[in-house]
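Preliminary data (for renewal application), J2J complex.
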Amino acid sequence: MLDGCVPWPEEFAERYRAAGYWKDETLGEMLRARAREHGDRPALVAPRGNTRRTARPGAQASDLEAGREAGGATGSEAGWETERQTGTETRTEAGTKAGGEAERETGEQTRTETGRQTGTETAWERLTYAELDARADRVAAGLHALGIAPGDRVVVQLTNTTAFVTLIFGLFRLGALPVFALPAHRSSEITYFCEFTGAIAYVIPDEDEYHRLAEEVLRKTTTLEHVLTKIPEAEPADLPRPDPADVALFLLSGGTTGVPKLVPRTHQEWAYSGRAVAEACAYDGDTVHLVSLPLGHNWPLTHGLLATFHAGGTLVLADGPSPDETFPLIEGEGVTETGLVPGVALLWMEAAEWGEHDLSSLRRVTIGGSKLSDELAKRVEPALGCRLQQAFGMAEGLCGFHRPEDPPEVVLVSQGIPVSPADEMRVVDEDDRDVPPGEVGQLLARGPYTVRGYYRSPAHNAQAFTRDGFYRTGDLVRLLPTGHVVFEGRVKDQINRGGDKIAAEEVENHLLAHPNVRQAALVGVPDEVLGERSCACVVPRGEAPALPELAAFLRGRGVAAFKIPDRLEIMTDFPLTPLGKVSKKALTAMVT
Ligand code: J2J
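Predicted structure:
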């Protein structure tokens, strides 16, 4: 296994292989198998290319960039250098040394159409399984021709487009490892991902904002050799087969620490998580799953992409979850399944009242990522005219969904039940002792798709995992007699802002860098739509800063917008625990 990762003990690996959970199959081979079984079925419907909406004029000609190449300047490096000096346009023409080797996309295999359904000028692309499979081979060869090798890390920060999907399957085929960033991340996060993983390439949307971001990241990092805005393609080449037991990708953990943690996932266990979700949700070839949340999260990747492809269904990608964007797509594409965070579900329920779009193809919506209140849960089925299922999960592994046969009284009050019979859960007290059945405690998880450690984090792993390999989720739960999990809160220092996870310590560190901040603590306050919002509690040094100033300060430090505090409370001191630590519990009570 990749250096810096914690393998499963052999006895567990053996058990998971023997039970058939771990197959001798890479993620690239999973797609190949589907293409062989039913090549002409629709696999993917998504905005084409690599821009959010309409391709900007000239975008085709400027689509491939190699930022730096180790050991010597290329034409495109000069481009970056020049641009960095002048601070003007950062794009360079394709056809650089590296780019010249990669063939350009021909577009022959696909049909495009103007986004009639959405009323924007988004160009949509449809790929069958055979087309997607062939494209992934071409992308793997194109990446290889650029000099990206098996084991190399590639930070992927793309919006929900066909480019996203073809890129990651190209990477899986090549055995290069995507590091999944989110479109909202900015230089602070991206620089860290690049440095920490030693990434040699960074893939961005072909948009000015991301060109500027890439320029900043290039200035701060040492390992990046390529910044790509176009997914390179070349004639398929014979490439060595990646080891299915080795790491295939890195997911970002919701996190509780000062710097984000990365979760290494292997081909075989991550593929299994998608297969197990497909089985739990009874997906089949008629499934049309819409992903409108950012695809780089574990949830849409497993429940959307992997489960749908495993079942031979159709994956539809939208650029965002707003009803304006998604309702016409549901109607136009006959979407049957989708996953939503509670805040978006509320928005959809309100918009559905207008009755402007036919949503009758929807069979079920799945709500998860943050706690769905029992009250809202009751309103979902009548408002959206389809079944409700809840889901919980984590980038580290364990996930649970309801089953089609679960009765409404269970679906309304619990968040799901683990997808694998081999998932192990313990609910424990502060001393790691099992609590009596039905009582609240911290959830510990172990199983065939729950990792045994974060990437290159031995010290943190010693706390985040028990000695016998259970992951400490930081979630407070209780189990129903049926085994369903009910989320009751958390012990981790994290804020769940409408499904976006914020590690309090990370934001506090940024706040503390401000000259007028002596002490900082970030806490969550209840919010009707998002579930929680963030509130920065600050003890000032000298004149107290105002929220807009602090927000601008954090933006200036390259912090993703969702992490910027929603509220600011200025205090003279912080309440302490008996041990003399800042009491977040007391602070939360003070500001709520
Ligand atoms: C309360 N809290 C929840 C829920 C996740 C499926 C679904 C979600 C994720 C995900 C995922 C919750 N109610 N229904 O990866 O495969 C909180 C918990 C958890 C954390 C993990 C999947 N569903 N949560 O949200 O890595 O606190 O994964 O530990 O983003 O989200 O966040 P993340």
